[in-house]
Design brief:
Elements (H helix, E strand, L loop, with lengths): L2 H14 L3 E2 L24 H4 L5 H5 L3 E9 L15 E10 L14 H15 L7 E6 L9 H10 L5 E4 L1 H4 E2 L6 E12 L5 E14 L9 H12 L3 E14 H8 L12 H11 L7 H19 L8 H19 L8 H11 L4 H5 L1 H31 L8 H6 L5 H10 L6 H23 L3 H22 L5 E7 L2 E7 L6 H16 L4 E6 L1 H6 L16 E6 L11 E4 L13 E9 L4 E9 L1
Parallel strand pairs: 1-2, 4-5
Antiparallel strand pairs: 2-3, 3-9, 4-7, 6-7, 7-8, 8-9, 10-11, 11-16, 12-13, 13-14, 15-16
Helix pairs in contact: 4-5, 9-10, 9-12, 10-11, 10-12, 10-14, 11-14, 12-14, 18-19
Bound molecules: adenosine-5'-triphosphate (ATP) and magnesium ion (MG).
Length: 608
């Protein structure tokens, strides 16, 4: 069964059982700052599961089904085995706030319905051999009881089926962030003819909420839930029961197409063949390297299509890391020149019908891949030489990951991986120390430049924060600051965005900043921990600059104590800033231009 057919069969089955199809959301989660990338199908339904939004209003149904694009950085190191990817497609069916049973107690669609639906799809609709399937259920733990109900339903639906029982670690799902909906789950595991057991489908019975202090509660229900959660060791019952399931499309294809690894399915074989052709290894290349390249280029294409750009921080760092790792594995296969474009084109060809965004952004995707490969390719050979030198050095010598990072652009993880393969270690503390030293130097240099006077620079600084917030309002939350330069009388602001801004967009951003100046909002400084800043959804380039710092400085434009509606901008920064926005006088955008692939630059000024 080809991949298009599998997707269609899945959706048709759940539509026939009363579900409504919801398109995949972006890999870049919108409005959810608690996760870097979308890792599961439930993510876009979180507000509905928490009862904060109404699925009936938004989708006309509480029973939903989707094929979600997912990306898991946590699985990067597993890529290369038979069944793990970074990017993959997750088939799911969901029940969010289904109307209650007539007795007003149980949910209309919960375990009783979800288990048979899954079982009948696999063994009935697809004809999988029930003898190759076993399941697991939650054994209980941390005050949450064992899932007797799921056990009973499985025994009734699939008499004689092997049922394993696991605790919190394995059979309790979520939340993907520090707080959120979660619950016991039941996994469906398939044993391949090779003997490999692969987890195919996870059914999550979402009926709990894991609480968390500090973050403002979005609704009264959560405030109350959190209050109760403290008494219950962190967990509380959600007011509604939800179903959340996820099945990897690639793993299902692996089973249905009777292959030994996901990389031989029709979702991957053409990409692997392309790389094989370039490496001229006639199928004899190290399969792990081939798989890593294929996985990473596929993931990169999808990330770029969703607006991610290679950067040294955040999502951009994930993209940069997988692209550079793919390039490195190309070297391991003895590919000498640039090679990623052809596999990238293959990915687009393979997926363009299912994911039209690849089609639409083809040019941009290829440009980003090409630029990153050229950038890294230039220093890669020198960097590898440098690395070899260290590796050949005195026994036990630690690899200087900082030089490789700073001079040759080797992501830390890449150096660690190469070193590990040689039985060497990277001194990560040393790396962090040097990185911090470098940042300190940069900070002092900036301070010196600013020495002119804080008073002179502060208005431009605050204006830059306002502009960043305005751009995010006008263009969308995927926009982030990517560099800044302040002078007396004007400033330069770089940000992530894939195309030229229209005049209308520029006018709107400018007008919005001027509106905030007129509102005369206070600029409020707060010292918070990095965790808190993240939870508050503060704008910043998180992963590196602030690592290891006890406290960071957060500037609010708008008074946070009057409720979050008042706050226009939240951004980590060292200042200086004005005390009230009216001090900016008037704001003007001077010009807008490109500043590298996926980065735009605005020159602007506050005219005090
Ligand atoms: P595993 O233990 O195999 O890593 P998981 O417990 O992380 O899986 P879930 O979080 O329950 O998986 O995700 C639901 C389904 O998504 C899995 O049953 C599997 O089919 C698929 N899946 C999860 N992670 C990956 C991955 N890295 N690559 C491909 N498919 C995956
Ligand atoms: Mg996993």
């Amino acid at each position: 069964m080809v991949h298009q057919e599998i997707r269609q069969k899945f959706l048709d089955y759940f539509v026939a059982h009363g579900h409504t199809v919801v398109p995949s959301s972006s890999l870049v989660p919108s409005g959810d700052e608690s996760v870097l990338l979308t890792t599961a199908g439930m993510q876009q339904f979180k507000p509905y599961m928490l009862g904060e939004a109404d699925a009936l209003t938004d989708f006309g149904n509480t029973r939903l089904t989707s094929i979600q694009k997912c990306f898991r950085t946590s699985d990067i190191d597993a890529v290369g085995d038979e069944h793990h990817h970074t990017f993959f497609e997750m088939l799911g069916n969901f029940s969010v706030g289904d109307p209650k049973d007539s007795d007003g107690v149980g949910a209309g669609y919960f375990k009783e319905e979800a288990i048979p639906l899954a079982w009948n799809f696999l063994t009935g609709e697809l004809g999988l051999d029930p003898k190759r399937i076993h399941v697991s259920i939650f054994a209980g733990g941390e005050g949450i009881p064992k899932d007797w109900e799921a056990k009973k339903i499985w025994e009734r639906e699939a008499p004689g089926i092997k049922i394993q029982q696991y605790g919190k670690e394995d059979n309790f799902w979520g939340p993907p962030a520090t707080a959120g909906p979660c619950g016991p789950c039941s996994e469906i595991i398939y044993t391949l003819p090779s003997g490999l057991e692969t987890e195919l489908w996870n059914l999550v019975f979402m009926e709990y909420y894991k609480g968390e202090r500090g973050k403002p509660a979005k609704s009264e229900a959560i405030r109350r839930a959190r209050h109760n959660a403290k008494a219950l060791g962190g967990y509380t019952k959600l007011k509604q029961k939800n179903i959340d399931t996820g099945m990897g499309l690639e793993r299902l294809a692996l089973i249905l197409q009777e292959k030994e690894t996901v990389f031989e399915t029709d979702l991957f074989a053409p990409i692997i063949a392309e790389i094989d052709k370039i490496a001229k290894v006639d199928g004899r290349g190290d399969p792990r390297s081939l798989r890593i390249i294929a996985d990473h280029i596929r993931g990169a294409v999808f990330l770029i299509a969703d607006g991610v750009q290679p950067l040294n921080v955040g999502r951009g760092y994930v993209l940069r890391r997988i692209l550079r790792r793919a390039i490195l594995h190309g070297r391991l296969l003895d590919i000498s020149g640039y090679f990623l474009l052809e596999p990238a084109k293959k990915v687009i060809t393979l997926y363009r019908e299912v994911y039209p965004e690849l089609d639409k952004k083809e040019k941009e995707i290829l440009a980003v891949v090409e630029e990153e490969e050229q950038k890294f390719g230039k220093t890669l050979n020198q960097g590898l030489k440098q690395l070899e030198k260290t590796l050949r050095g005195p026994q036990g010598k630690l690899v200087d990951a900082f030089v490789l990072y700073d001079t040759y652009g080797f992501p830390l993880e890449l150096t660690k991986e190469i070193a590990q393969a040689r039985g060497l270690t990277v001194n990560e503390k040393e790396f962090e120390r040097k990185l911090e030293e470098q940042r300190e130097r940069a900070r002092s240099a900036q301070k010196e430049a600013k020495a002119a006077s804080d008073e002179e620079i502060a208005p431009q600084h605050t204006a830059a924060h306002l502009l960043n917030a305005a751009l995010r309002t006008v263009l969308g939350p995927q926009v982030h600051q990517a560099g800044q330069h302040l002078e007396v009388g004007r400033f330069r602001h770089d940000f992530t965005f894939g195309r030229k801004l229209t005049d209308e967009e520029l006018k709107r951003a400018e007008a919005l900043v001027n509106k905030k100046i007129k509102e005369d909002l206070p600029v409020v400084k707060a010292e918070v921990s990095l965790e808190e800043a993240k939870k508050l959804g503060a704008e910043a380039v998180f992963t590196e600059k602030y690592q290891g710092l006890e406290k960071v400085t957060l500037y609010h434009v708008g008074d946070p104590s009057t409720g979050s509606g008042q706050v226009f901008s939240k951004e980590l920064c060292a200042g200086p800033h004005v005390a009230q926005t009216s001090e900016l006088g008037r704001f003007e955008i001077i010009k807008e231009e490109a500043a590298g692939a996926g980065i735009r630059r605005i020159y602007a000024r506050a005219i005090t």
